[in-house]
Structures are given as C-alpha cells and as structure tokens.
DNA sequence: TGTAAGTGGTGACCAAGGTCACTGTTTTGG
DNA sequence: CCAAAACAGTGACCTTGGTCACCACTTACA
C-alpha cells in the first residue's frame, strides 16, 4: 500500500486501483511548456525539478518531493490548458499517474484529497514568492549559498556531485559567474570544492 | 444581492447573512507581512494591490479585482500562518469579509466556493510565475511597458495619473531609472507624458 | 590508450541598472 | 499667495553580473 500522509484508506484504495505507478529514470523530461496533459502525477519516490525557461536561460522554481503533486498538471489537465513550466526527474523516481476524470470526482468525494491539493497550491505559492524575493533582493553569492543548502536538504547529500554549469543553469546565470562566486565562497570558508563536487561547511 | 459569477444562490445567501461588507478608502493598507488574520476578503468593487517588500524596496505582485479573493488570506487564516505579502487598496473599494470558521465549512458544503478558491490559487500561481519570468528574462524598458499596459487595463484609465516614483516602487527600481527609461520610450513614441500622467500610445 | 567532450579558471571588457548630487518645475496646503 | 513638499531631468560614477577568448585539466569511452 502506497504511503501518503493524511489520505483515507478508502481514497488510497481508489487511487491504487485506478492509477498507474510508473518508474522514471533520472534526467527524464516529464513536462514541457505548452504541453497539454491528461494525467496528474503524485511523486512516491525520487525527486522532480520544476523550472521555467526562455531561450537557453532557465531557472529552478521548486522541487516536487515524495508525497507531493504538481499543481501545474492539476490545472493544466482539469482546465485543459497548456503547461507554463518544465519538469524533469532529478533522480530515479516512482510516480503515480492519476487520471484527470477520476481526480475531478475524487476531489468532491474525498475532502482529504481536496485538502491535499489546497496544500500543494499553498506550498507552490510560497515557493514562487520565495523565488521572487531571492531574484529581487539577493545578490548572487547569497542566492548560490541558499541554492546549495536547499539542494543538500532535498537530495540529502553533502558533498553534492554537481557541475558549475548545472548550478549556473538552475540559477539562471552563466558558468563563469558561478566559478567566480564559488571561489569567493571558498575563500570565505563557506564551501569546499573537490573534483566535480561541492561540500557545504 | 451581491453579484459574483458562478456562485449558487444558496451560497450567496449564506455569505450575505454571515459576512460584513466594508467600504475602504483608497491607499489603505489592509494586510502586511507577518500579520495574522481571521477573515478572508472578497473584493466586490474597487482594486487591491498585492506586493512584496524588503527594506524600502518593493515589487507589485498582482491586483485583486472585483469578484476575486486573496489566497494569502485564505491560507493565512485557515492554517493560522502569518502573511508573506502586503496588500493595499488602490481605489475606494467595497470588500466582503468572510469569517474563516464559516468558510472552512462552506468549502465542504458548496463545491462552487471550493472551485472559486482553486481558480484563485491557479490565477495567483500564474501571476507569480509571470512576475518571475519578467524579472528574469526582460529588460526594464519591456517591464515598464508591460506594467503600464497592465495598469491601463486594470484601472481602465488612459492616460494614467501616476508619478515616476510610484512606478519605480512597483517595479522594484529607482525613480531616476524610470525617468531615463521613460524618456527613451517617449522618443520611441510608445508613451506620451503630461504633467504627472502617462498615456500609452 | 588516446582523443573528444566536458569541466573549471581567469583576465579583459561590456551593459544594465543603481546611486549621488544637484537643478528646476509643479502641486498643494496653510 | 507663498512656502514647503513632491516631482522630474540629468550627468557622473559605481557595482553586479554577463560575455568573450583562452588555456588547462579530467573523464568517458571507442
């Protein structure tokens, strides 16, 4: 039985018998801007990254962690609108795919599912607002540190195996810039770099 | 009887008999960061501006227009969390104040209200994402033009009576910068300036 | 095992926008 | 009607971060 906090047994049974559980390899694109979809993902295991992108420049928006869903898919499928964001698996993941037509009924029938989606919306509202505040108020050194801390927390790995290029992509900037700021942070003893990996101190 | 699209008569009656309709003068602060609240506003008439702020620097996030509500208030009051944003009336406004304890019941009882809040969350998600995209991908001249067009649409006034200082505040920048960019836009015949007002061409 | 691809480091330079200082004009309230 | 406050214009300068051109090192895999 799938473990998702705060869902009733009746609902979990419904979900299990009506949804597909798929395993998706790391680094697989699962949603792109403009795409129409008919399925709502519920992450069981692994990690999904959601980001915005425009002509080679992109920005990490938030992660979808186990027990979480994707509100973009929720509205995109219920209202038949195209997605405004991209999503990609960052780790090998197990994801439940809930069929839209079922979900629209379940929402009325099961207050706990209704609740879950309200919680998800609220969470993403906070995530996006946080992103705005960082873009607007913080310099790159702070943004980089916050990014690294968040990444350590979410992947539960320290040191992180990650390239300067990927960091740059996720922060919407250039590799050289990360190189520069990273060096500064290392001199300030806030991080330590090995080959291809970064440890937060 | 209050006119709000897509709400059942039964619900509207409930709302009318259990909520206070208040008139709030323009430029009145109605919500600040860190504040706890026990009431959910539904704008009937007028216009409410929602923004983020940090040490004198602020940024317009979105407007709450008639028939719309405030999802920040929704979660802040239902989950007893402090607000993360500021809100201020931009015009004289009539606002229905729904008591939280009632709303939590109405949401289960009336699918149309449940629906309204999902729509509002979706709308704000889009608003915040749009804000992020503009901050990240657009230069100030484009951001300024978009801001002015939006303002004209939302206030239904062209020319707009507005100072460079206020524009600067809402875009998170400085007055001198707006002065500069405004001059450029005027030379490109995209706007026309009179004393204390701006017309979009 | 050698070569191509990916990665990181660095200096020089550029562009956008933020800051400062100061001026003149317009608006407003007593 | 006049003084104070708010507003707008502008040149000089600074800071941040983006761009470019390289070079050197590591890693993967053919």
From TrEMBL, chains A, B:
Q: Kindly state which keywords UniProt assigns to this record, in alphabetical order.
A: DNA-binding, Transcription, Transcription regulation
Name the domain of life.
Bacteria
Record-annotated HTH crp-type domain positions: 138-201
Q: Name one GO biological process term.
A: regulation of DNA-templated transcription
- One GO molecular function term? DNA binding
* Pfam families, per the entry: HTH_Crp_2
Q: Where is the signal peptide?
A: none
Q: Which residues form a coiled coil?
A: none
Protein name, as recorded: Crp/Fnr family transcriptional regulator
Which organism does this record belong to?
A: Lacihabitans soyangensis
């Amino acid at each position: 039985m799938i473990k998702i906090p705060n869902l009733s047994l009746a609902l979990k049974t419904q979900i299990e018998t009506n949804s597909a559980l798929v395993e998706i390899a790391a680094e697989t694109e699962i949603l792109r801007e403009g795409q129409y979809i008919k399925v709502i993902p519920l992450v069981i295991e692994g990690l999904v990254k959601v980001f915005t992108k425009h002509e080679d420049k992109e920005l990490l928006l938030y992660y979808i962690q186990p027990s979480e869903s994707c509100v973009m898919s929720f509205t995109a499928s219920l209202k038949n609108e195209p997605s405004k964001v991209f999503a990609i698996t960052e780790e090998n993941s197990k994801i439940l795919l809930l069929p839209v037509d079922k979900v629209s009924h379940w929402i009325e029938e099961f207050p706990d599912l209704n609740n879950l989606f309200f919680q998800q919306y609220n969470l993403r509202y906070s995530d996006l607002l946080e992103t705005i505040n960082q873009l607007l108020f913080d310099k790159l050194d702070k943004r980089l540190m916050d990014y690294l801390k968040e990444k350590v927390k979410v992947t539960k790995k320290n040191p992180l195996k990650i390239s300067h290029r990927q960091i740059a992509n996720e922060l919407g900037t250039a590799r050289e810039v990360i190189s520069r700021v990273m060096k500064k942070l290392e001199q300030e003893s806030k991080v330590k770099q090995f080959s291809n990996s970064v440890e937060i101190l």
